[in-house]
């Protein structure tokens, strides 16, 4: 039945969600929690202070149109980061270095797709679990796709390696500074506390994600027609590269690219670099690689513009995704949604309360896709509720991080996910069909985990 269901274009789906968000602002009362600055200078909500805001004006119909440029403006950091990455990768591709390197990898490991999936997912998961990487993976999309297609896997399998890897990493993060550490700070817990239990969780959740991706990849390898994007021209990658031996200049280009990625990781971890600094690194990389290959300035410029231009559709998807959150914020119903979802928890036992926290955090991730933003809005409410229902605050943090991390793999309001899908030409509806079975399995395992955490007194 679902295979015959025609899903609209991703941009149509996102605008439909903007319309739904607008409808919620009409149906739900505007409300607000009082806020205060915590000891670390972050604004958090004060539990028990939710109040309906009287005499609020409805959002004008005109906002359904103006919210699009506002969404693009709000997401300008990641949008321009994507443009610069696209331009830089086009310059690097023009040197032939990536194709030559990938050809060598395929010749050596072409018969070991299971190893590629395992090592790739593990690398993405560890990066997200420790230093919170997500947007930084975008430059690797084109490389990963080429590797996977050379091993007779499709773009869905390739992106599954990346997205499932970083989703599992976020959901079971040991010390992600943007989610775990923020939530523990807001909940008044010692930073990185409870790390042993989270480390123990990594293996079973990672195994679940790995089995899902490799089963799909094997199905596509056995029967290419089984690909979820077999009939989508935009999702068909270029043929695997066929090149001669790699040259000295191409090796230098690859070395420069590797050094740039090392600098990126170092800058994120040590200096908290973000889009501006990272964009600067990749622009400099484009110049360095062009000079190494003795490419003319005009050729560098032309390749850079072509590469950036290929990602215009991706930029629009990111802006539309951000516009959903803006609509809900403008209508002042975000806190209303949080308050309404949290009320039932006080009426059930601790085990069900813990599972309910996971369910609520998963729903809220649709409305507040920012990990740290969700922590500042929800943890001041969930932490005191956990005290009331007999659940430790560490359990409340665990529910938050799993709800946020796992749902990042499926919610269309996640700008990073939509950007990656846009780069690959994968319609959201096809991705939904791929990821939904895994999400259901993760939620079941996550619910069991929450019960176990309560029973063992996880602190």
Query: Class by helix and strand content?
Result: mainly alpha
The 3D shape can be described as globular
First and last CA, distance: 46 Å
Give the oligomer, counting copies of the same chain as homo and different chains as hetero.
Answer: single chain
Record the strand order, biggest sheet. Answer: 1-4
What's the structural domain tally?
Answer: 1
Q: Could you list the spans in which at least 5 consecutive residues all have pLDDT below 50? A: none
Binned strand content: under 5%
Task: Evaluate the radius of gyration.
Answer: 23 Å
Helix and strand string, N-terminal first? HEEEEHHHHHHHHHHHHHHHHHH
**Number of helices, counting only DSSP H or I runs of 4 residues or more:** 19
Number of strands: 4
**Major β-sheet profile:** 2 strands, antiparallel
Description:
By secondary structure, the protein is an all-alpha fold. The chain has one domain. Helices cover about 70% and strands about 0% of the residues. It is built from 19 helices and four strands. The protein has helices spanning about 10-25, 65-75, 75-95, 95-110, 115-130, 140-150, 155-170, 180-185, 195-220, 250-270, 275-290, 295-310, 310-330, 335-340, 350-365, 370-390, 395-405, 415-425, 430-455, and strands at about 30, 35, 45, 50. The strands form two sheets. Strands 1-4 form a two-stranded antiparallel ribbon. β2 and β3 (about 45) form a beta hairpin. α3 packs across α12 (about 295-310) and α3 (about 75-95) packs antiparallel against α13 (about 310-330). The mean pLDDT is about 85.
């Amino acid at each position: 039945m679902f295979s015959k269901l025609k899903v609209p274009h991703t941009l149509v789906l996102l605008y439909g969600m903007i319309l739904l968000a607008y409808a919620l602002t009409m149906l739900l009362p505007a409300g607000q929690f009082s806020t205060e600055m915590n000891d670390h200078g972050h604004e958090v909500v004060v539990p028990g202070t939710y109040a309906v805001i009287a005499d609020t004006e409805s959002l004008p119909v005109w906002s359904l149109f103006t919210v699009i440029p506002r969404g693009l403006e709000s997401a300008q950091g990641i949008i321009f980061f994507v443009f610069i990455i696209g331009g830089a990768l086009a310059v690097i591709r023009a040197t032939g270095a990536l194709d030559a390197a990938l050809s060598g990898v395929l010749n050596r490991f072409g018969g070991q797709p299971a190893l590629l999936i395992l090592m790739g997912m593990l690398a993405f998961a560890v990066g997200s679990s420790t230093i919170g990487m997500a947007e930084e993976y975008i430059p690797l999309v084109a490389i990963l796709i080429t590797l996977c297609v050379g091993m007779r896997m499709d773009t869905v399998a390739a992106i599954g390696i990346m997205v499932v890897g970083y989703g599992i990493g976020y959901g079971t993060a040991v010390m992600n500074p943007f989610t775990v550490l923020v939530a523990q700070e807001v909940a008044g817990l010692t930073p990185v506390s409870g790390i042993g239990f989270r480390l123990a969780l990594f293996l079973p959740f990672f195994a679940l994600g790995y089995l899902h991706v490799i089963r799909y990849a094997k199905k596509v390898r056995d029967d290419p027609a089984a690909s979820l994007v077999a009939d989508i021209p935009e999702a068909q990658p270029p043929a695997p590269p066929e090149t001669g031996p790699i040259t000295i200049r191409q090796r230098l280009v690859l070395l420069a690219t590797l050094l740039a990625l090392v600098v990126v990781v170092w800058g994120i971890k040590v200096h908290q670099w973000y889009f501006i600094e990272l964009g600067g690194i990749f622009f400099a990389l484009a110049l360095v690689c062009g000079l190494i290959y003795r490419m003319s300035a005009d050729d560098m410029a032309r390749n850079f513009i072509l590469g950036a231009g290929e990602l215009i559709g991706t930029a629009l998807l990111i802006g539309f995704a951000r516009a959903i959150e803006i609509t809900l914020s403008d209508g002042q119903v975000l806190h209303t949604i949080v308050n309404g979802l949290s009320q039932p928890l006080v009426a059930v036992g601790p085990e069900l309360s813990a599972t309910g926290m996971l369910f609520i955090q998963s729903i809220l991730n649709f409305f507040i896709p920012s990990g740290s933003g969700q922590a500042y809005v929800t943890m001041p409410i969930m932490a005191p509720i956990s005290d009331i229902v007999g659940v430790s605050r560490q359990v409340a943090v665990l529910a938050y991080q799993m709800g946020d991390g796992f749902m990042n793999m499926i919610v269309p309001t996640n700008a990073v996910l939509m950007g990656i899908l846009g780069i690959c030409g994968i319609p959201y509806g096809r991705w939904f069909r791929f990821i939904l079975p895994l999400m259901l399995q993760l939620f079941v395992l996550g619910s069991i985990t929450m019960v176990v955490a309560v029973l063992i007194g996880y602190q």
